[in-house]
Structure formats: structure tokens, C-alpha cells
């Protein structure tokens, strides 16, 4: 791809990469379970019993978005939502047997799709690409101290507020 002024903008490239991801997801993984929903299923497989708030924080999803996703997955009987025993304000989430089976079914498809999405990158390029995406998406988690300091004010390097 030849870079022109119109394709040099990071946001445009990120959007185009997201479009490629979405198209591959639909073709290779699922037309029923979205990639964000898979992220929820995978997080609960790895750490069952998270509260709805903890899950939203882990996946960087706001309260209304995580509530909607949980409701959709609950309606499909892929997860259960129960009140915490000692704190009735908290919803504790767990995969159902159907949810574990769905996650196990999707995981190899997701891994294959991920390979297709990044097929033109060598191993070192892929590592650098993922590290760069993490630095953009979550500077603090990436260990970038200067960005983390700015982020403590809830802003990125442009001064735009970020949800953390």
C-alpha cells in the first residue's frame, strides 16, 4: 500500500484494520457471536466468577455496553448471572456448560482468523504490531511511563479524554 496523505492518518488505518477484522470474523468465526462477546466468554472461561463491573473494567467496556452484552449472552444461555452472596449489589458471572462449549468451539476459529488477519506479518513484525497497538490502546498497561502519567489525568497525548 502506497501511503498518501489520506492513508497516513492512524485513525483511518485503525478503522480499515477493524473493517478487515470484522469481515474476517463474519466469514471465518461466527455470524452469531461477535468478537466482543467472544472476549467476554473467553475472560469468563479464564476467570469465572468475575463481577459484571470487573469484567467491564477488564475489557474496557462501559457499564451499559457490558450490561447489554451480558444480557444477550444470558438470553442465549451462554452465561449465568447471579447475585454475589455477601454483596447483593454485585452480579457474579459464570459460563454455563453451553457457554464453555461455545467458547471451546470458537477458540480455534478465532486463532485461525487471527492468523489470516496478520498473515502478511512475520513473527517479529507481529510482536511489534501488537506491542504498538497496546501502547496506543492502553499506554499504562504497556508500561509506557510518560503516557501513563498523562493518562492519570484521563487524557491521551492529544489531550483527548480516554475511558479507563
Would you spell out the secondary-structure blueprint of this structure?
Blueprint: H1 10-28, H2 35-46, H3 52-59, H4 63-75, E1 79-83, E2 91-95, H5 97-117, H6 123-137, H7 145-151
Antiparallel strand pairs: 1-2
Helix content: 55-70%
CATH architecture of the domain at 30-97: Orthogonal Bundle
Across the major sheet, the strand order is 1-2
Give the uncertain stretches in residue-range form: 147-153, 155-164
Q: Helix/strand/pairing class, anyone?
A: mainly alpha
For the termini, the CA-CA separation is 33 Å
The CATH homologous superfamily of the domain at 30-97 is named Winged helix-like DNA-binding domain superfamily/Winged helix DNA-binding domain
Count of DSSP-assigned helices: 7
* Shape category: globular
CATH fold assignment of the domain at 30-97: Arc Repressor Mutant, subunit A
Oligomer: single chain
Roughly how many Å is the radius of gyration? 18 Å
Order of helices and strands: HHHHEEHHH
Largest sheet: 2 strands, antiparallel
- Say how many strands there are: 2
Q: What's the average pLDDT?
A: 86
Quick recap:
The chain has 164 residues and is mainly alpha-helical. The chain has helices at residues 10-28, 35-46, 52-59, 63-75, 97-117, 123-137, 145-151; strands at 79-83, 91-95. A hairpin with a 7-residue loop joins strand 1 and strand 2 (91-95).
Amino acid at each position: 500500500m502506497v501511503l498518501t496523505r489520506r492513508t497516513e492518518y492512524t485513525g483511518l488505518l485503525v478503522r480499515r484494520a477493524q473493517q478487515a477484522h470484522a469481515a474476517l470474523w463474519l466469514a471465518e468465526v461466527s455470524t452469531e457471536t461477535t468478537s466482543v462477546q467472544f472476549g467476554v466468554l473467553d475472560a469468563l472461561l479464564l476467570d469465572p466468577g468475575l463481577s459484571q463491573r470487573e469484567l467491564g473494567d477488564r475489557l474496557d467496556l462501559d457499564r451499559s455496553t457490558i450490561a447489554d452484552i451480558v444480557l444477550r449472552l444470558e438470553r442465549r444461555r451462554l452465561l449465568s448471572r447471579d447475585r454475589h452472596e455477601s454483596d447483593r449489589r454485585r452480579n457474579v458471572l459464570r459460563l454455563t456448560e453451553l457457554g464453555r462449549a461455545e467458547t471451546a468451539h470458537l477458540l480455534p476459529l478465532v486463532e485461525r482468523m487471527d492468523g489470516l488477519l496478520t498473515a502478511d506479518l512475520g513473527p517479529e513484525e507481529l510482536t511489534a504490531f501488537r506491542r504498538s497497538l497496546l501502547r496506543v490502546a492502553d499506554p499504562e498497561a504497556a508500561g509506557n511511563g510518560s503516557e501513563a502519567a498523562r493518562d492519570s489525568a484521563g487524557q491521551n497525548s492529544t489531550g483527548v479524554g480516554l475511558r479507563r
